[in-house]
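Exercise (ungraded).
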Amino acid sequence: MSEKQVIEVVVASDAQQVAAKSADLLIALAAQSAHAPNVALSGGSTPRAMYYHLAEQPSEVLGNLRRVNYFVGDERSVHNYHEDSNVRLAVENLFRPAGIPWRCLQAPDGGAKDLAAEAARYGNLMKQLLPTGANGQPQFDIVYLGMGGDGHTASLFPGTRALSEKQATFVANEVPQLGTWRLTLTYPALAAASHLVISLAGASKADVLAEIFTGAAQGKYPIEHLSAPRITWIIDEAAAASLNPEQIANYQKKGNA
Ligand code: 6PG
């Protein structure tokens, strides 16, 4: 756990509100940052609603969103136009409808023949383009993350090699339980970020979230090993259903001890 870590938990009414509150953090950063913000986008299905919320913003906000440097925090081992691609998800649901030029997005090629080399290239690009964080890793202003039902985040899945990566920024990661490879930011890269925003919704996440927030999980889930100066969980009531307000408050205090 990083020093002076601030943990915030925001409970939203539903998935739509999770998306809106997640988007609002980017809108505020894009409006207030003195430098062009560096933001890593998440994958999966949750970001889609956030992208819709961003794309329907007024022109002034859209103008601010065009000054952001976008990256993806992880990608599937598919080409960028494949239906499973996180890059395609962002291009089709955010960049195109919001009129954000594609040049604002630096993306890995999930369809590369040599995924390890492509991951290294993309990680080095992040190092070239971003300021350097305290641990020597490229420093994002915000990294958006989700959580899978197995407690994975980005493409840091339980039992996979990337969990033990201590040096590289972005790696190819074999995920035997899915029978595939992924490309992902590593724990050191995530720890360098100024702010991690974990957005999740739905009853399917409730049991794992309760194990994590009450400490019952005892570190068995990859997402529990995230570290950064500021971590914001944005969850909906369905995902929080197995927790009471005191348990949520205690979890926040844990990070702010
Ligand atoms: C991915 C994501 C992954 C995602 C979780 C949650 O590439 O799939 O980066 O970490 O955030 O699996 O996915 P949902 O948002 O679909 O629940």
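Further reading is listed at the end of the chapter. For now, observe: Helices lie at 15-32, 46-55, 59-65, 86-98, 115-129, 187-191, 206-214, 245-255. The two ends are 11 Å apart (CA to CA).
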